[in-house]
Design brief:
The protein is mainly alpha-helical. Helix content is 72%, strand content 0%. It has 9 helices and no strands.
């Protein structure tokens, strides 16, 4: 097996398990299925081309997510968007339902829609930190490496993102209730 084949096989071994997570993050960034697919494809092409510069033993996930993010920010969509636990407080002490009813399904869908809209309205800097932490379950250190920002910035952006999300969801719920 030549060096190029070994390199490609190593890349596939590391990258393919992250495909769905990369697509999910790309979709959140672009808000468009086709653009997300293109973004992931371009990310894989760039990552494969630059795989020789990847330092074995370092965090591959952070490396490839950084490539995806930078590719997004350099794209037409990313340039437009780049302006600067989902702790939804549940004061409603509803009893758990044993099986889904049409009403519970409708409420779940409405809540999910409200949450998605609120996340989409966050500035990219907050949205990406929130998604990497809560959806992709990256550590603060991994997020800092992915976004090439200090850990303190990760923590402050995450705090601000959660606060803004909480406020937006509360506002949307109050608007829907009236």
């Amino acid at each position: 097996m030549c060096v190029a084949e070994r390199s490609t096989a190593g890349f596939e071994e590391l990258a393919l398990p992250l495909f769905d997570r990369l697509y999910n993050f790309a979709h959140w960034l672009t808000h468009n299925r086709d653009e997300a697919e293109d973004l992931v494809q371009e990310t894989f092409a760039k990552a494969l081309k630059g795989f020789s510069s990847f330092e074995q033993g370092t965090n591959f996930k952070a490396w490839i997510f950084r490539i995806l993010r930078n590719t997004f920010l350099n794209s037409r969509t990313g340039l437009k968007a780049a302006t600067v636990p989902l702790d939804v407080q549940d004061d409603d002490a509803a009893l758990p339902v044993e099986k889904e009813t049409p009403e519970t399904i409708l409420i779940d869908r409405a809540s999910e829609r409200i949450m998605q809209e609120a996340i989409e309205e966050l500035p990219v800097a907050y949205r990406e930190v929130l998604l990497l932490c809560e959806v992709e379950e990256m550590s603060y250190q991994e997020i800092a490496a992915t976004l090439t920002i200090p850990i303190g910035t990760v923590m402050s952006r995450l705090s601000r993102a959660r606060r803004a999300l909480r406020s937006a969801v509360t506002e949307k719920l109050q608007r829907n209730a009236s």
